[in-house]
Every structure is written in C-alpha cells, then in structure tokens.
Amino acid sequence: MFNKILIANRGEIAIRIMRACRELGIKTVAVYSEADKNALHAMIADEAVCIGPAATKDSYLNTKAILAACELTHAEAIHPGFGFLSENANFARLCEKCGIKFIGPKPEVMDAMGDKANAKKTMVSAGVPVVPGSDGVVATIEDAKKICSEIGYPVMVKASAGGGGRGIRLVEREEDLEAQYTAAQQEALQFFGNDEVYIEKFIVDPRHVEIQLLADEHGNVIHLGERECSLQRKNQKVLEESPSPIMTPDLRERMGKAAVAAAKVSGYQNAGTIEFLVDKDRNFYFMEMNTRIQVEHPVTELVTGIDLVKAQIRVAAGEELWLTQDDVKLSGHAIECRINAEDPRHNFRPCPGRINFLHIPGGFGVRIDTAVYTGYEITPFYDSMIGKLLVTAPTREEAIMKMRVALSEFIIEGVGTNIDFQLCLLKDEDFENGNFDIGFLNRKNVMGE
Questions:
Q1: What tens digit of pLDDT does each residue of 341-398 get?
Q2: Are residues 371 and 281 part of one domain?
Q3: Which of 17, 192, 280, 399 is the most exposed, fewest CB within 10 Å of its CB?
Q4: What pTM did the predictor assign?
Q5: Using DSSP, how many helices (H) and how many strands (E) does the chain show?
Q6: Which residue among 292, 314, 338, 396 is the active-site one?
Q7: Residue 167 is part of a domain; what is its CATH number?
C-alpha cells in the first residue's frame, strides 16, 4: 500500500479522496492554485503545494508543476479525481516515466477508449451493442452520404475525439448533411485539434444509463449496477439515481455483462464507467467509456455499500478484487442532486461570490460531498459546483421525499444556487413517474416560469 498520495484536483472530489486515503492510513498531498489558497482541500491535507496562478492551464493542468510537487513531497502515487488531467493519457505516461503510480487505467487504454470511433470498433469486437453507423471515421462527404442512406435519417455526425457536447450535429434530411458534416468537422478541429468525425443513427428520446465497473490488475472485472443519468441540461448532468426507474433484472444482467465484456476486451484496470443509450423498447447501445471516477459515483456507493475511491487505491496498489460478481448486492434507492452556484432564472449563469451563511442538511440517509464553508469564496475560474447532496431510502418514493426535505433545509446565502430548481424537479409529476429521457430538461421548464 502507498504511504503518500498526491491529489491532482480541487474541491469536493479532493476532499473525498483525502478521506479515503486517511481511512487507509495514507498521507495526503494537496496541490492548489493561487486562487485556491484558502480552499478546504489545501487546508486539511497533510501537505499542500501551490502549483501556479488561477488559470487552470497554469495550475491544475500544469503537469510539470504537479510532478515537481510529487518529487518535492515524495508522494508515490497521484489520484487525478475527475476532470482536469483524469483522462489525459500523456500525463499518465509522464507519471510512469517518473516512477509515480497513476491511479487509473493504463495510458494506452485511455488512448483507445478516448477515441470514440476506435472505442466503437472495440465494442463491436466484444459483442457489445452499438448504435448503427459508420465502422469508424468518415473521411469524405461521399462516404457520409452512402452510410446515411444505408442506416436512414435522422443521424448524428460526431467528433471522434469529442466530448462535452462539442463537434456534434443532428441531421434530419439528406439535403442538410453536407453543411452539418462540415460544421462538425470545423468545431472538432477548433476544440480538439482533430477534425475526424463518425456517423451514428439518431436514437429518438433515449435514456442515459451507465454501468459502474471495477477491474483489478489481475484480470478480474465486476460491475456494480447502474446509474440513471438522463436528467441533463445541455449535456451536463443535473440529477442521478440508482436503480434506474426503467431497470429490470434481465436488462441489468445484460447491460452488466456487456459492460464487463467491454472492460475485458480493452484491458481495463481500476474504476470506470460504460455509458449506454437505452431506447423506449429497452434496447441498449454503447455510447462511451469514462476512464476515471465519476462525479456521481456516490450514488453507486450508497446502493452497494462499496467505497469506490478506496477500491481505486487498493487496485492501484496491486491488490486483487476482494469481491466477486455474486457478492454485489443492490439495496434501496439513492438520489444525487448537484448543487451549483448558478441562477436558473437567468439561463443558469454562474454566480461566483462569498458564502455568507451556510447550513448543510443532515439526518438519517443524508450525505453531502462538498468543500465549501461559511466565508468561502466561489471564484469564477472553476466549475460552479458547490457540492453533491445525496439521500438513500428503501424505495424511490421515500428517497424522493427525503431529498425534498434535505433540499428545503439546505441554506446558502451570498450566492445564487440551483436548489429551488432541484426542488421543482423533485416535485415534477413526470419525474415522480419516471417519465423522462435525455432531452427532458431541454424541453420542459420544471420551474413553470
């Protein structure tokens, strides 16, 4: 086991990782930007190193400064959390060259699964269902027209190296294809430095359901059930839950087996997630793989009783999985609401500022992952997430009621938040009935204003 781990992140995930390390008897090193000098993660770590100015490129993406901090503090491993460098294969390679353990998959696996066109080929080879479309990159408009005529409209043109909703175009008619194909290429080049695109059949009103995986360095892979992640605004998740309202034992078994097969064929190690689209007939299709811990990982922890961050660390230290698939049991229902410093009434614009008063809800079955405190300054430089509020209860109905109570007790003064928006969502009749899909929050104003 490691003696000391550097956490290459900030905010609530840095605190979350620190807690797991301490429970394993591991010392922690925080890195922080000049803007985060008063951040909680910098204050409570065993050691803390300033790695640069506020801009992420000069601090949390500054690989040289982070590796220098490792050398300075004699940390043996780096946990990247999510975002920032967590899916940067080149950074993982640098860690290997420096003799530092990167807590995550091998860089070659990150390369393979990070390229969406290549990942799709890998899934086909593993027998995992994929959305009908091109076998890989579509190099010319002539090829694009041929493929679209075969699979039928509507289609999606997607950046091969894309993410975050960039480099994606919906094409509903053949006469629009050339313009949208070119637009997707141009946006892909602008944001990812790679203009390669591929084409998929557009699945109408799908659900976004993901399967959590754990894989060790000895070839053992298990899944930990699913998370329902369809409630999104502009491709950003708002609320997650487990189990999914549409899940059946048969569907869970088939999706779980497909996710495990995907991990095995790609040689995956550590914690990861396979994301699927599920249509109205409960057919599921591979969407992408996230080669890191995810924001919504606590949802899975609450229904399985498994600490995913501890599991990551233990796997990275070379331990074999201490669980088999038969040991994984799902119990109860969990819901996570992302609490952000933003104004839902003005297009969810960020609301940086000082928190003048903070009251965090508690009680049986309530959990909050956060790094804020009274007097904390939310800066404009980073993500606006204040924290993640979670509840667990025996049934979905009870979990919804518990979350409503917890949200109503969550008081933050000094900055605008989306707490009222989350309360309205929890009271929405379609949400209560599980009647929603990936486009639900883009179509419906749950605040009724």
A1: 999 999 999 999 999 999 999 999 999 999 999 999 999 999 999 999 999 999 999 9
A2: yes
A3: 280
A4: 0.90
A5: 15, 22
A6: 292
A7: 3.30.1490.20
